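Consider the tokenized backbone below.
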């Protein structure tokens, strides 16, 4: 039964893709919006459309298989909202990078680089960046 809701979600995702396409055509004025210099090219554009449509179908199908009282209208709305929902969820994943601040080549860290890292976390819309500096570095 969840596959029917997945199809409704796919329809919602494709509807959003159609609206994005219309906006892109209006922005460019003439020609295909994915052609250089206005876009990335046909291949990456197609992959992004298929990926977002698949995410819409997956989210609506999973909700339809697990929630009692699911209707086609709710599945369609989930398909429309799926790209935004997944984008907001992905923003909650902390990002940490360990990079040398200064001193030797990147492939050969020096002793002074031992405690030097930069870590960034983006827990919400208030972006915070913290920097840990080693003993020998001036701040």
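A designed sequence for it:
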């Amino acid at each position: 039964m969840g596959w029917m809701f997945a199809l409704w979600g796919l329809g919602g995702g494709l509807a959003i893709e159609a609206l994005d396409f219309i906006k892109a055509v209006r922005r460019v004025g003439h020609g295909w919006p994915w052609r250089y210099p206005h876009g990335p090219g046909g291949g990456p554009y197609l992959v992004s459309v298929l990926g977002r449509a698949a995410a819409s179908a997956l989210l609506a199908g999973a909700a339809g298989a697990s929630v009692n009282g699911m209707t086609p209208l709710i599945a369609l709305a989930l398909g429309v909202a799926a790209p935004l929902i997944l984008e907001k969820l992905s923003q909650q994943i902390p990002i940490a990078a360990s990079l040398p601040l200064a001193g030797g080549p990147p492939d050969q860290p020096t002793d002074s680089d031992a405690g030097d890292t930069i870590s960034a976390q983006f827990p919400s819309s208030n972006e915070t960046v913290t920097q840990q500096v080693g003993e020998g570095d001036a701040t």
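The two ends are 61 Å apart (CA to CA).
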